[in-house]
């Protein structure tokens, strides 16, 4: 509306503008201003196409909604002030009335049904049939004075009046919707059914509280064809017309429709107009109290939520209408376009249009009141799709500027991610705003780093700010950001420039340099940096870029950094040849031991004896418990050298094993008895080698122990009974020697010896028996002319089979032989039941 001045600043919210308003206001100007300079408005009627303004001089002005005349001539309908104007549904006819007693019906496009009637009495109210424009509708209208009269066109175009009701104190207002008419008098509000020509109800006033002097107007408004809104003095009533059920109508002779109350409540102001707003109400009101000078206060437009006996106030706006101090409640009028939710507020010298806030209006109000979060929510919701003026980018940037101006930099950084999306240009523009206040760190986490990236200079600016103010943050960004976002060489130069400045935090910059060098492909420098820092990321760098050939000279340094991880790294997939590792670690025996031990346990091709000779010495130095198992398990070490190592360190168990391997069993046995004093191992050693001389040596060693002689003899007597002739031992014991447990030891020795003799005798008998049995069988076969080749054994019953004997025999090609009676289901047996080959094996019978 370019020709309507917006004056929201003149209509202030009753709660200091903190409550979000429902309505916005514009003042109608243009031709209307000239009209009201010379005349005054007395009533109004609005239609979606135009509005009709009645004046105190009896004029009817036809204007568009911007206040422009739509007819060249003004209608001089009356000689005094127009009381009420009514428009039909199509906007083709208007009706008006006045205290001059005239009723004026005027067709905007046709004069056929125009009327200019003189009633001879004051006519306060008029209502034209909503369907007046239709031919055959009867061209009806209703007037109200001391009675309510219906006028309708009859045969020969005559106008027929019908008195519907006598009105006590006169008809104060009339409202017509569909087949129902409502009017107000001093008695109350009556609702009438024009089709049934009967009254549906009378809503009486409460005389003690509601009856006031007759100059107070009753405001009637149909919300639709069945809901009536009543505003009388300071009371609001809402009624609904419903159709009776068939059961109700059958019980008594009642009208088809009945009126039900919906809500009744009182307000603390006088009501000048009432209108529906979706599920709420619009009330135009005047305060009951005057100001300090005795003048009227500004009228107020209220939005309320009706309840059954109460209401909730949504918002209220005081209106600065021209000359409001001189006007009373009846000087104001309210009309509306329900479908458009537009409300026309009329005073004698002013017209203001109130309409619902649209999406743009709401966002503008939220922004102007600093409610930026709500504005963002509104623009991103479904309602935001209706915005024509505002966009997410616009609202977001206004909010962003606010946050930056109030030093809320972290919130501003988060907001950028939400509003800037994938727009590279917008990102760069906003980043420079952060740069101007040295707060690039606040936006660094939100900069785009995926499909959309900014100019490399943007990322470098951020890195330089971190380099100056937050070294930890700088290192973190170097780790997180891919190197394609910025020029690596430029950042490297920046780090090198700052190395002398940040001497106390030298390591952070060196780590950053290592990462940057690896990004730049200078892996040798990166590895050197990591090793200098003793940083374990060196392993990841080597593995990531396959730098195995570059680390041969760094093997000991890697072991210093993390020996276990380095060894695991060397051994995995044979990344570093073992001979290289051994060569590089030859001067560090501890690391060499750790590596060769892991290599031996891994059992790779390099661990199968190649370094066992070296490992013997290392085990002797660092892990003796692993030495003897290695000596026993391996044959790939020089025995003499190993024996020298063990001899130097007096590793007697290892020496015993090695002496046994080279055949020096006597010395080995001497070590076990003399140094280790381990008779049980000595006996086991003699049993293993089963040498008579060794046993004699053991006996000699035992008899030569002066301290432990008796115990050693007892132990030997208990153990050697099955290996040595007991007499040899017993004969050499001194008769005067006292031996504890001698009796039991001799008994056990003799029992063991007898058992051995018994076993030998049994074996000899079995051998002799087998010999004679086989010889007898051979003689018998020779007598029958059967050779040993003809002799077989049944694979099922294991009895002897003579193939040439007439008994039926089954022989498979695998040469397994069976008695025919021993094979069940011979007819279906195709395979040897022992071999059970995969393919069928034919059999031959004899």
Under CATH at level 1, the class of the domain at 41-171 stands as Mainly Beta
Quote the beta fraction: 15-25%
Number of strands: 35
Given as residue ranges, the uncertain stretches (5+ residues, pLDDT < 50) are: 1-6, 12-16, 209-213, 706-710, 837-846
Biggest sheet overview: 5 strands, antiparallel
Strand order of the largest sheet: 1-3-30-29-28
Distance, first to last CA: 124 Å
CATH fold type of the domain at 41-171: Methylamine Dehydrogenase, Chain H
Report the total helices: 28
Class derived from helix and strand content: alpha+beta
CATH superfamily of the domain at 41-171: YVTN repeat-like/Quinoprotein amine dehydrogenase
* Shape, principal axes of CA atoms: elongated
Share of helix, binned: 25-40%
Tell me the Rg in angstroms.
60 Å
Question: So, CATH architecture of the domain at 41-171?
Answer: 7 Propeller
On the 0 to 100 scale, the average pLDDT is 80
GO molecular function: zinc ion binding
Function: Plays a role in vesicle-mediated protein trafficking to lysosomal compartments including the endocytic membrane transport pathways.
Keywords: Cytoplasmic vesicle, Endosome, Golgi apparatus, Lysosome, Metal-binding, Protein transport, Transport, WD repeat, Zinc, Zinc-finger
Pfam families: Beta-prop_Vps41, TPR_Vps41, zf_RING_Vps8_fungal
Protein architecture, described:
The chain has 846 residues and is α+β, with helices and mostly antiparallel strands. Among the domains are: 41-171, Methylamine Dehydrogenase, Chain H; 663-783; 787-845. It contains 28 helices and 35 strands. A 5-stranded antiparallel beta sheet has the order 1-3-30-29-28, with no helix packed on it. The longest helix is centred in the C-terminal third of the chain and has 42 residues, at 742-783. The chain is elongated and about 170 Å long. Residues 1-6, 12-16, 209-213, 706-710 and 837-846 have low confidence and may be disordered.
């Amino acid at each position: 509306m370019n020709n309507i001045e917006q004056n929201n600043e003149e209509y202030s919210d009753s709660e200091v503008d903190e409550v979000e308003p429902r309505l916005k206001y514009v003042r109608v100007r243009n031709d209307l201003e000239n009209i009201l300079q010379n005349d005054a408005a007395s009533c109004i009627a609005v239609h979606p196409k135009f509005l009709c303004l009645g004046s105190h001089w009896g004029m009817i002005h036809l204007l568009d909604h911007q206040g422009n005349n739509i007819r060249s001539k003004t209608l001089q309908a009356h000689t005094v002030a127009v009381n009420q104007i009514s428009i039909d549904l199509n906007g083709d006819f208007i009706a008006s009335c006045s205290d001059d007693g005239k009723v004026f019906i005027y067709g905007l496009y046709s004069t056929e049904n125009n009327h200019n009637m003189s009633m001879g009495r004051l006519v306060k109210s008029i209502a034209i049939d909503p369907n007046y424009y239709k031919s055959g509708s009867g061209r009806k209208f209703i007037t109200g004075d001391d009675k309510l009269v219906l006028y309708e066109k009859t045969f020969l175009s005559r106008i027929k009046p019908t008195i519907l009701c006598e009105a006590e104190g006169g008809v104060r207002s009339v409202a017509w919707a569909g087949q129902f008419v409502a009017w107000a008098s001093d008695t109350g509000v009556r609702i009438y059914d024009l089709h049934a020509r009967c009254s549906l109800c009378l809503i009486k006033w409460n005389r003690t509280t509601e009856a006031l002097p007759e100059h107070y107007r009753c405001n009637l408004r149909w919300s639709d064809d069945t809901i009536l809104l009543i505003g009388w003095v300071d009371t609001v009533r809402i009624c609904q017309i419903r159709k009776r059920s068939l059961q109700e109508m059958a019980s008594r002779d009642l009208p088809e429709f009945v009126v039900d109350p919906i809500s009744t409540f009182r307000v603390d102001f006088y009501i000048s107009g009432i209108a529906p707003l979706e599920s709420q109400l619009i009330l135009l009101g005047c305060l009951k109290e005057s100001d300090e000078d005795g003048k009227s206060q500004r009228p107020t437009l209220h939005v309320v939520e009706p309840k059954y006996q109460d209401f909730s106030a949504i918002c209220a706006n005081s209106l600065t209408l021209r000359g409001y101090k001189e006007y009373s409640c009846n000087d104001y009028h309210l009309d509306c376009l329900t479908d458009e939710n537009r409300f026309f507020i009329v005073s004698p010298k002013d017209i203001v249009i109130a309409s619902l806030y649209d999406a743009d209006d709401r966002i503008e109000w939220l922004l102007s009141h600093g409610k930026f979060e709500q504005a963002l929510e509104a623009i991103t919701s479904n309602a935001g799709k209706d915005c024509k003026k505002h966009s997410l980018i616009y609202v977001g940037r206004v909010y962003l500027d606010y946050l930056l101006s109030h030093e809320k930099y972290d919130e501003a950084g988060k907001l950028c991610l939400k509003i800037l999306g994938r727009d590279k240009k917008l990102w760069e523009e906003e980043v420079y705003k952060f740069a101007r206040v040295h707060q690039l760190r606040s936006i660094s986490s939100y900069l785009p780093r995926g499909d959309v990236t900014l100019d490399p200079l943007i990322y470098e600016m951020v890195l330089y700010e971190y380099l100056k103010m937050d070294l930890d943050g700088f290192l973190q960004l170097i780790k997180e950001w891919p190197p394609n976002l910025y020029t690596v060489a430029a950042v490297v130069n920046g780090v090198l420039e700052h190395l002398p400045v940040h001497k106390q935090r030298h390591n952070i910059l060196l780590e950053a340099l290592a990462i940057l060098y690896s990004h730049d492909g200078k892996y040798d420098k990166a590895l050197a940096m990591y090793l200098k820092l003793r940083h374990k990321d060196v392993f990841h760098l080597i593995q990531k870029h396959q730098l195995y050939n570059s680390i041969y000279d760094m093997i000991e340094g890697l072991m210093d950094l993390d020996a276990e991880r380095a060894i695991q790294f060397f051994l995995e997939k044979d990344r570093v040849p073992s001979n290289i590792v051994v060569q590089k670690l030859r001067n560090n025996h501890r690391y060499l031991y750790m590596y060769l031990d892991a290599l031996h346990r891994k059992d790779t091709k390099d661990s199968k004896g190649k370094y066992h000779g070296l490992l013997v010495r290392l085990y002797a130095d660092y892990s003796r418990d692993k030495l003897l198992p290695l000596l026993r398990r391996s044959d790939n070490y020089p025995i003499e050298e190993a024996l020298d190592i063990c001899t130097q360190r007096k590793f007697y168990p290892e020496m015993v094993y090695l002496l046994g391997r080279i055949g020096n069993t006597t010395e080995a046995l001497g070590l076990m008895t003399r140094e280790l004093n381990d008779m049980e191992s000595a006996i086991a050693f003699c049993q293993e080698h089963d040498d008579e001389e060794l046993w004699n040596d053991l006996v000699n060693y035992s008899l030569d122990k002066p301290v432990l002689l008796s115990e050693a003899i007892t132990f030997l007597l208990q153990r050697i009974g099955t290996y040595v002739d007991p007499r040899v031992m017993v004969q050499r014991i001194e008769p005067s020697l006292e031996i504890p447990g001698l009796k039991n030891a001799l008994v056990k020795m003799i029992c063991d010896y007898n058992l051995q003799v018994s076993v030998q005798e049994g074996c000899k008998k079995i051998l002799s028996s087998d010999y004679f049995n086989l010889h007898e069988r051979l003689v018998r076969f020779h007598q029958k002319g059967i050779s040993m080749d003809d002799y077989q054994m049944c694979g099922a019953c294991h009895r002897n089979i003579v193939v040439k004997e007439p008994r039926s025999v089954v022989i498979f090609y695998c040469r397994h032989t069976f008695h025919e009676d021993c094979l069940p289901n011979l007819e279906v047996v195709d395979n040897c039941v022992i071999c059970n080959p995969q393919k069928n094996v034919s059999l031959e019978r004899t």
